[in-house]
């Protein structure tokens, strides 16, 4: 674990997966699954509000490195993989709430599905509302229906992906580089949404490990 793990780590929007290591993959996987299962079981069996709020805000004070060391290398369709991605989504939102809210609101404006309703952000969605949504989703992991929290995270990703695609289309002729970056980001959000949805389905069938 990095010596300065207690310091918040900044992530750019393009860094969804960036942690490498030379340890035994089987050992890493076992630790990831055991810690994720133990944490979730303990908190959900006794969801003390103070404990839940500490977990929600954990990366604000300690940075993302400690969470990443535990769970970032887990497969996407696993319990530790799902927890890692929810924490990372929250971090990305809090690092740039203005841009995130703009992309989400654009996605809401062009949405042809019920995803904005499933995600559940207040409308209109500004920086404060998008931060509140991130906290609500993570809080739901520990206190509510875990599958619903994953569904909300997936819906958020799909709405944001639509917003990024819409803005990318606007910039295609005038700012092609930025347009390409947003298109890549949209694809990344879409992929993450698929992973959350798969995890929700596995959780409901009691198969998410």
Automatic annotation (TrEMBL):
GO terms for cellular component: DNA-directed RNA polymerase complex. Residues 1-21 are annotated as: Disordered. Keywords: DNA-directed RNA polymerase, Transcription. The keyword Transcription applies. This is DNA-directed RNA polymerase subunit beta. It comes from Cryobacterium frigoriphilum. The lineage of its organism: Bacteria, Bacillati, Actinomycetota, Actinomycetes, Micrococcales.
């Amino acid at each position: 674990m990095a010596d300065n793990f207690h310091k918040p780590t900044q992530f750019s929007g393009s860094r969804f997966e960036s942690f490498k290591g030379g340890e035994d993959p089987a050992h890493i996987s076992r630790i990831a699954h055991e810690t994720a299962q133990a944490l979730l079981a303990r908190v959900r069996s006794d969801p003390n509000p103070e404990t839940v709020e500490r977990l929600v805000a954990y990366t604000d004070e300690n940075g993302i490195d400690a969470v990443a060391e535990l769970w970032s290398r887990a497969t996407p369709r696993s319990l530790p993989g799902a927890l890692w991605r929810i924490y990372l989504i929250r971090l990305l939102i809090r690092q740039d709430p203005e841009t995130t809210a703009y992309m989400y609101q654009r996605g809401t404006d062009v949405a042809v599905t019920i995803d904005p309703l499933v995600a559940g952000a207040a409308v209109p969605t500004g920086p404060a509302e998008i931060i509140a949504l991130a906290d609500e989703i993570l809080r739901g992991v520990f206190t509510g229906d875990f599958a619903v929290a994953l569904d909300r995270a997936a819906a958020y990703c799909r709405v944001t992906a639509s917003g990024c695609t819409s803005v990318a289309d606007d910039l295609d002729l005038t700012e092609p580089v930025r347009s390409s970056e947003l298109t890549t980001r949209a694809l990344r959000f879409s992929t993450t949404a698929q992973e959350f949805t798969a995890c929700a389905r596995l959780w409901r069938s009691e198969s998410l490990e």
